[in-house]
Design a protein that fits this description.
It comes from Bradyrhizobium erythrophlei. The protein is 79% helix and 0% strand. The protein has 203 residues and is an all-alpha fold. It is globular, with a radius of gyration of 18 Å.
């Protein structure tokens, strides 16, 4: 495994995106445990894209306008729904002092859906990982599995760091209604912006 892959993967993972935004929001509204749960859910959401890339399904989606558009618009609708839920103070991002097992599971499921409904993720695996697999590699699938596993582990660790940081400053924020109000609007605007950007995304 090359240093170039590790550095590139870290930049991709650490860059603010839907998963990072959701992890921060979950940690700020429900605490550090919810941030870790969100990181876990977002990481699990990578698995379908990884499997699709290995099975060649990502290539089909890359060439099929209908398949790409279907998944893309599902993602757009879900992100806009998330923005609406944040503004309503409901759903997985509602401020809650108590974090029950049911709520924790919901945070994981939401994180999973956020990534599984991102068509760019499977195409990312299709375009990104092969660059680090030599044409004469004797076991390309095994190496791809190793690279994918490393990418997932890095995603989880980085997102957990984001979540723990957000959780550590949570008490200073949730006790200030005005700050929480603006923060909620910011998260809602972030989800809406990501949804709009996805709407204009091309294969």
């Amino acid at each position: 495994m090359s240093l170039a892959f590790l550095l590139t993967a870290f930049i991709v993972v650490a860059s603010p995106g839907t998963g990072v935004l959701y992890t921060l929001a979950a940690a700020l509204t429900k605490g550090s445990r919810a941030g870790i749960a969100a990181a876990f859910g977002c990481t699990l959401g990578i698995v379908p894209s990884m499997c699709a890339a290995m099975l060649g399904l990502a290539a089909v989606m890359h060439t099929s306008a209908l398949a790409f558009a279907t998944l893309k618009w599902c993602g757009v609708v879900y992100l806009l729904y998330m923005a609406f839920q944040v503004l309503r103070e409901q759903g997985a991002l509602a401020v809650d002092a108590r974090l029950e097992a049911r709520s924790l599971k919901r945070v994981v499921v939401t994180g999973f859906l956020i990534n599984i409904l991102n068509p760019k993720l499977s195409i990312f695996f299709l375009a990104f990982l092969p660059q680090f697999i030599a044409t004469d590699e004797p076991r390309p699938l095994l190496l791809m599995l190793e690279l994918s596993g490393t990418f997932m582990a890095m995603t989880f660790v980085v997102f957990v760091v984001y979540g723990l940081f957000a959780g550590s400053v949570r008490d200073r924020i949730v006790t200030r209604p005005r700050v929480m109000s603006w923060l909620r609007r910011g998260f809602a605007g972030g989800f809406a912006a990501l949804g709009i950007r996805l709407a204009f995304a091309e294969r």
